[in-house]
Amino acid sequence: MMDSRISGIGMTSARTRERLVQRLMEQGVKLPAVLERIRNVPRHLFVDEALASRAYEDTALPIGFGQTISQPYIVARMTEALLDGGPRENVLEVGTGCGYQTAVLSSLVTKLYTIERIEPLLARAKSRLKELGIKNVKFRHGDGFEGWKSHAPYDGILVAAAPMTVPDALLKQLAVGGRLVMPVGGEGKQELLRITRREQGYEKEKLGVVSFVPLQAGVIAAS
Questions:
Q1: What is the pLDDT of residue 1?
Q2: Which residues carry out catalysis?
């Protein structure tokens, strides 16, 4: 029963997922490991059952609390931007959300730490990743602006929500050679950035216009 739920049927089947992967390739996603992860992670488990038939559309979907699961292209694009140029071992994700991006990243890095400010979303993500047998992820209910200093430095940081400016704490938690991939800017004016820490400072690349929910400070506890 559990295997069939994960493998999916109809609009959540392997054939439907393959069509999504083909679309991502046509849009320029190239890393085979990223495409394989998109193909294999059951996105339909990370959305409400009523939306499962839309899980493999290349679109963002609501997950509650004013948050969304990012469209597959953006997940693939950000993952590729983080990993292109070499493997990342110690990685921080800011904005766990429903856990889909977390699941995609989990088999592509050695250790993954993920922070979510909304406790009910974090609990749901933990449950989904446990169901999928993913064991190399550590979770924290906390403020993403602060990062997770005790496990720094990171050779990769991925942020799934947009602040107005890059948080200084995240820059400081990057290892030399490490990459920070995140959207920055206000609504309608966001750009996806890749920032690489060098011995002499930080190198910034603009990767295109995007649309994310804002990164917010503070935490929301379970009621």
A1: 38
A2: 70
